[in-house]
Design goal:
Elements lengths: L3 E2 L4 E2 L5 H4 L9 H8 L7 H4 L14 H16 L4 E2 L5 E8 L2 E11 H6 L2 E2 L6 H14 L1 E2 L3 E5 L3 H11 L5 E4 L6 E7 L2 H12 L4 E5 L1 H17 L11 E8 L5 E2 L1 E5 L7 H8 L3 E7 L10 E6 L2 E7 L14 H11 L13 E5 L4 H9 L5 E4 L5 H9 L10 E2 L10 E2 L2
Length: 415
């Protein structure tokens, strides 16, 4: 059963939130963070991308860079740009994209639940990325950025959340660049806090939607602290890490598409002929074609879009991994025809989040940088949960959640 608890959040004052809040550390590079933080000493990038406080080209993994993160975190608190709440609360964080709003509960999730699999994953993690985030958690003694969880939607939780979201939010702003809306409320009523905790305790599992490396790092550091403390009791703050939990029926997974640099020695005509072995291929002309359903793909080649529909028998409906469109396209197109066997390491392939639109695929092919593009129908939340429940792992670059959580709205300290 899922264990959660309220916590004393560390947050910006209301009038500073837009100056502090930032995009997550892993959706932009150092140069982009440097540009976005220019002229803003309060930007959270000084904590989550502290290399921006050093000369251009400084390695973000140097010890002095991690130390700078901790120094800046202390500075933000000393200057009152981040202030800790007096009591333990839950929080509501709402995001609005394209007129649709999703409401997340900000909670502390259990390190033990992560270790025992009550918190379920659907992606593999890389040890180097885990270690980077572990160092960041260690030096700050805090979860600076939350992870993104899903849970099985429940009416009673929705009703409690709705009671608070009818009131004026503590924070309400439109983020620059993407134009998404962000709102924030505090759940401070003890009866509501107790009931939310009870309702989560009845859930058999929580699901990592986005932030597998942050989840792993937070849990591993918590486990380290447990082992290092001879007086460990189990209720210390390091036994928990910060997560924003959204009802599964409110979340949107968008497409995660592929672009490839060459046709593996084939001509356009030869490639299309080989595709016809396993797909129904239809020429859709020069207008952008979007995949219409599962097992339907959009191929952009030359200056034409093609519909590819996987033929019956080319996938197994009873195999939770084999039935995924990322698996079908990887096995029958990228591997079998183009010789791309490892999506994680092959330099001939790149990946484009659907938030950029299919026009981005066309642009990268038309520029000559890439030879063709493949657009996929998005994975469903049901597929994600089924795979996590079965203990399986999705292939690389399968899910893209949008909108991303804004960092800097709240922080969890491990003491």
């Amino acid at each position: 059963m899922a264990v959660i608890k309220p916590f004393r959040g560390i947050r910006p004052p209301q009038d500073l939130v837009e100056r502090v809040a930032s995009r997550p550390y892993d959706v932009l590079n150092s140069d982009e963070a440097r540009a976005e933080a220019a002229g803003n000493e309060m930007s959270l990038y000084h904590i989550i991308r502290p290399e921006i406080d050093f000369p251009v080209g400084t390695d973000e993994h140097e010890e002095k860079v991690y130390a700078k993160a901790a120094e800046n975190f202390r500075l933000f608190r000393d200057k009152g740009w981040l202030v800790q709440d007096d009591k333990e609360n839950y929080y509501v964080y709402a995001q609005t994209m394209n007129g649709k709003t999703q409401y997340g509960l900000v909670v502390c999730a259990s390190v033990q639940d992560y270790m025992t699999g009550v918190i379920k994953k659907h992606e593999l993690t890389r040890r180097d990325k885990e270690e980077d985030r572990m160092k960041h958690v260690r030096v700050n003694n805090a979860n600076i950025e939350p992870v993104f969880f899903a849970y099985p939607s429940q009416k009673e939780i929705n009703d409690i959340v709705a009671k608070y979201t009818k009131e004026k939010p503590v924070y309400s702003f439109i983020a620059p660049l993407d134009g998404f809306g962000h709102e924030f409320w505090i759940i401070d009523n003890e009866a509501d806090i107790r009931r939310i905790t009870e309702l989560f305790a009845a859930m058999p599992a929580l699901y990592i939607a986005d932030g597998h490396h942050r989840s792993a790092a937070a849990a591993l550091v918590g486990d380290e602290k447990r082992k290092q403390n001879p007086n460990h009791r189990g209720d210390e703050e390091y036994n928990y890490f910060m997560a924003v939990c959204f009802p599964d029926d409110q979340l949107t997974i968008i497409d995660y598409n592929r672009v490839v640099k060459d046709l593996n020695g084939l001509t356009k005509e030869e490639l299309l002929k080989k595709l016809e072995e396993n797909f129904v291929v239809e020429d859709k002309g020069t207008e952008i074609y979007k995949p219409a359903c599962l097992h339907n793909f959009a191929l952009y080649l030359g200056d034409h879009w093609y519909s590819l529909t996987a033929k019956p028998g080319t996938y197994d409906d009873h195999d939770p991994i084999g039935v995924l469109d990322v698996t079908i396209s990887s096995n029958l197109i990228l591997d079998k025809i183009l010789g791309i066997k490892d999506l994680r390491s092959d330099k001939r392939i790149d990946f484009v989040g659907g938030i950029r639109g299919l026009g981005e695929l066309k642009k990268r092919v038309d520029s000559g940088e890439m030879k063709f593009a493949l657009a996929l129908y998005p994975v469903s939340m049901k597929q994600l949960i089924d795979i996590a429940d079965s203990g399986n792992i999705m292939p690389p670059k399968t899910t893209w959640f949008e909108p991303k959580l804004r960092s800097g709205l709240i922080i969890h300290e491990l003491v």
